[in-house]
Fold this sequence. Notes:
Blueprint: H1 8-11, H2 15-41, H3 45-56, H4 64-70, H5 75-87, E1 91-95, E2 103-107, H6 109-118, H7 134-153, E3 169-171, E4 176-178, E5 183-185
Antiparallel strand pairs: 1-2, 3-4, 4-5
Helix pairs in contact: 3-5, 3-6, 4-5
The protein binds iron/sulfur cluster.
Amino acid sequence: MNKSVFDPQSQIDNSDFKIVASLERLSECFRALLWEKAKVLGVSPIQIQILIFIHFHSGEKCKVGYLAQEFLLTKATVSEAVKLLEQKGFIERQTEKTDRRSHTLHLTEAGKGAVVQIADFANPMLASLAKIPFTEKGVLLEQLLSIVGQLQEVGIISIQRMCFACRFYQRNEMDHFCHFIDKPLKNSELRLDCAEFEARYG
Ligand code: SF4
C-alpha cells in the first residue's frame, strides 16, 4: 500500500505529508462553517456556494455549465441545485437575447437578502491570520497560489482565474508583472479570482 498523508507515523519526518494533511484540516473547517450557515438558511452547502458565486461574478459566468466546472460537479447536480434555488425564490433564469437556448442566472431580491446572511461564512478563519506579519502573508499567498496552479496544471481542479494561469501574467526575476494593468505585482497583490483574467491557453 502507498504511504498515506494521514498516517501520523509517516507524517513525522515528512513535511509534505503534514502540509497536505493541514490543508485537509482547513477544508474540514471550511465545510463545517458552510454547514452552519446552510442550516440557518435551510439550503445545502452547494446552494450557498452558488448564491455567493452569482452575487460576485458577471453574467457570462453565471450559467449551469460554468458553475459545474467551477465546483467540479456534473451539470445534472448543478441543475438540480439551481432548480431548488428557483423554487425557494432565490434565483431566476434569464434567456440570452443572442441565444434563446442559453440562460444566465440572477439573484432575486430574496436571493440578495440571503447572500447578505451567508456571504461571510468563512470569515471566522480570518482571525487565524491576524498574527502573521504582512510580508509573510504575501509569501504564504504566493505559495498557496502556486499549489493551486500546479493542481490546475495536472487537471485536479478546473481553470482558476488567477495570475499564474493568466495570459497577462509574467514572472520577472524578482517580481510578478501584470500586462493588463501594466504594473509589477507584489506577492500580496497576486489575485486568485480576477475579473480581468484571460486564460493563457485555449
Ligand atoms: S489580469 Fe488579473 S489575473 Fe491576469 S495577471 Fe493581471 S491581475 Fe493577474
